[in-house]
Write a structure and sequence with these properties.
The protein is built from 7 helices and no strands. It is mostly helical. It folds into 2 domains: 10-57, GMP Synthetase, Chain A, domain 3 (2-Layer Sandwich); 67-147, Non-ribosomal Peptide Synthetase Peptidyl Carrier Protein, Chain A (Orthogonal Bundle), CATH 1.10.1200.10. The radius of gyration is 18 Å and the shape is globular.
């Protein structure tokens, strides 16, 4: 599908929102739709919209693929009291909020000796995204000889 001139992508909309809103107010997912179901008065039919979007909102299960994803998935599961957290799962879709998010980031920081800001979780709410940020933070805090690539 071609993008209309001036139309923004979901990623661009989230980036704009992060520039203009507090991190906890930015939607963790933005889905662009062609049309909204409305009633005869033009009001959005939320139940019909939810039914249409439900398959899009539920990510398929992908097992954590590396140690960082395993760590993040475990912490999500512990803080939220759930099992079976996968790489594509979104913390906020799983029932997380800003308070439990602070606990997640605090646990990860304590376990890894890092200082990731809580806003990182709002910007990167899936296991895979947060694990990527964790990996990058570890790499950035490593001594130069560890960061150097082998020849």
């Amino acid at each position: 599908m071609l993008r209309e001139a001036g139309a923004a992508t979901a990623r661009e909309l989230r980036a704009f929102a992060f520039d203009h809103l507090a991190p906890f107010k930015v939607p963790s997912i933005i889905i662009i739709v062609d049309d909204l179901p409305t009633n005869a008065l033009g009001k959005v039919q939320r139940k019909a919209l939810a039914g249409t979007l439900h398959p899009t909102l539920r990510a398929r299960f992908v097992s954590p693929r590396d140690a960082d994803e395993q760590l993040v998935a475990r912490v999500f599961a512990e803080v939220l009291g759930r099992g079976g957290v996968g790489s594509l799962d979104n913390f906020f879709e799983l029932g997380g909020d800003s308070l439990t998010g602070a606990r997640v980031v605090g646990s990860i920081n304590a376990e890894c000796g890092l200082e990731l800001p809580v806003a990182t979780l709002f910007m990167m709410p899936t296991v895979a995204e947060l694990a990527g940020a964790l990996s990058a933070a570890r790499q950035a805090s490593a001594p130069p000889e560890v960061r150097a690539r082998p020849h």
